[in-house]
Amino acid sequence: MFLRPSSTILRQAAMRFGRVCRFASVLILGILMSGHIQSSRAAATDAQAGGLVTLRGNTRAEATALNDRGRVSDDMALNHMMLLLHRTSEQEQALQQFIKDLHDPASPHSHH
Length: 112
What we know:
This protein is an all-alpha fold. The chain has a domain at about 5-45. The protein contains two helices and no strands. It has helices at about 5-50, 90-100. The model has no long low-confidence stretch (mean pLDDT about 75).
């Protein structure tokens, strides 16, 4: 003969399970973000040191040696190509200041 657990026991078990799942999600997210931040910092440091930085995970699957057709002419137009770069906060601040200076007649950057 089996006893049916009361709804209070089931509710408590469900609440505990929910807390464990939320904790695990936060823990996993923290670990993933920590790795991303460290790799971003390493790439920024390498780039600032004048070295080359390989940006991983941004190459289309079709870009393989099998599909490589060699060099193209210097005047070939690359329609629909987009290059997205992320500025550091210092670079963004310097850019915003430069744009303000362009509109300030007293600034040496202004061409009014």
